[in-house]
Write the structure tokens for this entry.
Amino acid sequence: MGKAAAVGTAVVVAAAVGVAVVLARQRRRRELELVEGAAAERKRKVAAVIEDVEHALSTPTALLRGISDAMVSEMERGLRGDIHAMLKMLITYVDNLPTGNEEGLFYALDLGGTNFRVLRVQLGGRERRVVRQQYDEVSIPPHLMVGTSMELFDFIAAALSKFVDTEDNGLHLPEGRQRELGFTFSFPVNQTSISSGTLIKWTKGFSINDAVGQDIVSELSKAMERQGLDMKVTALVNDTVGTLAGGRYADNDVVAAIILGTGTNAAYVEHANAIPKWTGLLPRSGNMVINTEWGSFKSDKLPLSEYDKAMDFESLNPGEQIYEKMISGMYLGEIVRRILLKLAHDAALFGDVVPPKLEQPFVLRTPDMSAMHHDSSHDLKTVGAKLKDIVGVADTSLEVRYITSHICDIVAERGARLAAAGIYGILKKLGRDKLPGDGSKMPRTVIALDGGLYEHYKKFSSCLESTLTDLLGDAVASSVVTKLANDGSGIGAALLAASHSQYAEID
């Protein structure tokens, strides 16, 4: 090959290489543009879903006021005995709350799930208050949850008898007196007196059909007799009423109790003149504790989103407990899961493949949601760890973690603000939502709260309290106190046994 030919070949080769380089660069540029375009489209879709969620779950103050008004209306309907009322407003027959003067030894039995607790409390009057208390917790064998009422109550009475046998000199009963028991029974009951009520249905995994329609106190009393235990049930209450009693014992200005845990409920002290005349009841103290059963509240004003509606439709009780499904610990984590699933399906939040674990209902629990929401680390390490353990995504970007935390914030804020609206409704019903018209001083008002959601989910409780202040206004809010009341369902029942003691008039 001549020199000219060699040079020509080299030029052709160089040109070909140059073209190849240019084509490769153009291909990489197009690929990069496609990737950037896909990322931009994903971000657009993510933003669109989040915007829809923020709108659907928004709770402006005007809406909360409307919800409170609807709550008051349903409370009034329930008190009138309207069978169509969303709130049943159950009369508890608790017309004598603890004053602090109670003395003596009293027992409590707290049955509300697969475990029950037995307690005893030595009360020393106003000066000494709770002198001493002891308790024991017992697990109910699974076969007794589906057996007969006699088997279940014999087991409970045997445990109670065994506990009584451990009384010592520090906890003693006055001579000649019968032991008295407060019975916390957190299942649906048609209460007929302070110490009697017929079981409507079992919940929480129990299925003992022969007890339905029976007087639950009578069943327990017969079991105690079979155990040779001389004890009288002087108060039958649920956990919310127990919390109210415990709160009132600690602070005489407590007017209502709210449970915010796995489920939710509220009880409050109603004026005697609001108790319907058809009941024939004349409260001794001029007041009566009402168990609202507010979890069943439903109104077209509640901001139900597509996620709430789908969760309700797939639940074991569709159409029921709507308010509870929007604010309680059983459901908040599930709402977050459903929103994340929407983001995974519609916006590929976790990549091209939807994580299979995210498809599982209730795989994301509210305690996990709380842990992610409270993560303040710079890289949201806890959020990443939770998504890995629960959703199964091993490596998440900081953007995905921030989005997840933001969803937790939206859902928790809505739940807390709706709960505050309910409390505001109770205060409106009691006339404690505004300054007295006669210029007198606003009375101090205390709300006792219990339940793991309120106690442990700090951002939830903080939002609830700030929302209540917003609804009340600073002038009224300065006289309203929210206070954590631990163990109300236990010691509260013992205190109600004391305040409704058969020996109260003698003392």
User: Anything to note?
Assistant: The first strand starts at residue 90 and ends at 91. The longest helix spans residues 3-56. The chain is about 45% helix and 15% strand. The two ends are 128 Å apart (CA to CA).
